[in-house]
Amino acid sequence: MTAVAPSPIACVTEAHHQAMALAAGRIAPTWPLDSWIAVNPWWGLRDLPIEEAEARLARRAGVTLTLPAGFYRDAWENGRIQPEDLRAAIAVCDSPLDEATLLAALKQPDQQAMRWTSAWEWLAHDAPATTDDSFEAVAELCAGYFDHHQQRWETVPGETLYGWWRTQSRHDRRLSATQRQRVASLPADTATARETLLADLALSPEALEALVHTLLLRVNGWASWCQGLAWHTPVATRHAGIDELVVILLAWEWLGLAELDEPHRAHWRAQWHQATPGADRDLQALWCWQCAYELGYQRHLSKKLATRPASRPEPASVQAAFCIDVRSERLRRHLEAASNAVDTLGVAGFFGMPIIHDPAGPARALPRAPGLLSPRYRTTESTPLDELHRRRYRQEASRQGVRHAKYHALSTFTLVETTGLAWGWKLLKDSLPRRAPAPSPTPIEGPFHAVGGEPLSLAERVALAQGLLGSLALGKEVAPLLVLVGHDSASDNNPHHAGLACGACSGQGGGVNARLAARLLNDSEVRRELALRGTPLPATTHVMAAIHDTLTDRVTLLDSDAVPSELSSLLEHFEQALNQAGRATREERATALGVQAVGDAQRLEALQRRGGDWSQPRPEWGLANNAALLLAPREASRGLDLDGRVFLHEYDPGCDPEGTALEALMTAPMLVANWINLQYYASVAVPKLYGAGNKVLHSVVGGHIGVIEGNSPQLRIGLPLQSLHDGTSWRHEPLRLTVVIDAPRERIEGVLARQPDVAKLVRNRWLWLCRRTEAGLELYTPAGWQCLA
């Protein structure tokens, strides 16, 4: 059947610009490696049901969002999916398929999704001598433009990404002389070039949206980086935002289209005007199986939460507030088992301190707050700084000298010959077994300041303290010792180290935030003002900070010398409980890590050596296997073994009749947990597009931008294979997040009515929403709340 090309458009309209903006908005952002945070790669598609989003991605990127049929077949045969899960999934998905049809679907061979084809891909397919270099060329261009760390040829200050491409294309031998002349004929101004290209391509707004999104997905990593600039470095978008990248991609398509003959050009144009089809029968079946897989976990969780939790015989003497990170769940459980005097709480690990911390030396200041928040305050590494500054600057000057020598044209062979033995010794030394250093407390100088301003006023400090106390939900009786436990990890030669640190602190350790929060709550002026405002802290309560090393599960108490003498015996008891909890947690984690050591001392030594081994691809499993978020009082989960899979945030429904605290939790921690969960899900289900590939083949781009794999210039986002797979099987179950809330139905539904982004995630099935009852869990569906028996 011959496709007929639609008539060219008469002019470029506002609808075309809106279509381009919509397509660009479909790409999720990414963050630099040194301030890396987990991102939901489908954030820009949240307004679509997940099945419809998959149908679009199948046509535009050739991917599906479910696992292969064999994955569900194995889960069915080994009992991970039970018959009752499948029957419940049919009902929840309102599927027209019956059990027999679903079982038959598992026997069908997997089919590759048929994606739409760009002009250069069409040329490469029809002319074997032609190679599709356009997307590799765009990726190389981005690597060169954004790399200010290693490259020798710097961009002209203020030059746009499009302008850089237009200049570099004069020397691009992938282009013919005629094509280079065509590029030179394009306007030098990005906006004018955009208008010229849109007029020449002559697509309807709907077709343009499909084309632009498809092209961006071909360079998804760099598109995500350009999108991320608007989130974490807005000033850079004046020269290099995603709009600049779109114009370059359209220009390449414009060049390729000129090489097609008229019949192929008509086919090319017609495909973008096709309506995106809905999910076919096989994909409907796989989504039903995915739902059954998730319902199986939810039934298991429902039974646990219906168990009568352990009751507290007496008020706690120590309250320890941990980050909601799933790795805290195991330690909290063992800590409370080690001592009846200790109660634990869950709260976002930045402890309400949205700061940017300025270290001594040449290192850049980094935010220590959730990636969706702009830091409002600045802290500085404390004195004495002179010698520390000098040492760090000398180290960086040495590194820069070697770096410049390494990339100099005359040093290709001479540098290796003259310094090879020295570098050989360094490689040998780094290969020797050694321990990873434990996360150390960062000294802080004086009070923290507003960014670019004066030290915080008393009113500002009190407002911060009130926000923290509200999120902690300490209850009626505050313990004599309140400990804020941040967390960090330790590993050498690991570009993705920030992914193992605190996500609430933009991939940094939470010790600085914990120390600032403790200092704030111990401030006598702040305490007096809190008492006047009706949120007092007892004069007998002391607040201190600590760091949980998630590699070894050791907790280091900070500023313990400031603890009043009358609490010294309580502090000693707490340290003993922490040591006991650490031993139990290490024993629980050892098998999954393949640590065979017998005895805690040997086990601890093995974990430290994992972090110090520069060739170790997985020092720890991080947040692998995360599956749920629980917003409830600790009484709902105390004593329950949740397998280190649940984010635990304190929420007391009795103290929140208006639902304001719940709304804050569903628009902040819940979104963060969703981003983490779907990044892990995507890295398993769609690793080629959303995973970082093989760590063994990684090279870091630009010092901190990201990683590439092998000799490909495409930027890889998401998680490396080694963070998810142990070489034999997946260590992360790809499940959409199950959010469990201890609150009345009406309160939860009220938040959905007021918060459209949250409602989209729930109603379009990007996560599951449940409420806790005495009988177990109720699942929210468009047809109403359903019990999970």
TrEMBL record:
Keywords for the protein's UniProt record, in alphabetical order: Cell membrane, Membrane, Metal-binding, Transport, Zinc
> What Pfam family is a match for this entry?
DabA
Q: How does it sit in the membrane?
A: Peripheral membrane protein
Q: Which residues bind Zn(2+)?
A: C323, D325, H487, C502
Q: Where in the cell is it found?
A: Cell membrane
Provide the cofactor list for this protein. Answer: Zn(2+)
Keyword Zinc appears in the UniProt entry: yes
The cross-references to PANTHER family, in alphabetical order and at most eight, read: INORGANIC CARBON TRANSPORTER SUBUNIT DABA-RELATED, UPF0753 PROTEIN AQ_863
Q: What does this protein do?
A: Part of an energy-coupled inorganic carbon pump.
Family, as annotated: Belongs to the inorganic carbon transporter (TC 9.A.2) DabA family.
Q: How does it assemble?
A: Forms a complex with DabB.
Its protein name is Probable inorganic carbon transporter subunit DabA
Q: Which organism is it from?
A: Halomonas gemina
Organism placement in taxonomy: Bacteria, Pseudomonadati, Pseudomonadota, Gammaproteobacteria, Oceanospirillales
The encoding gene:
dabA
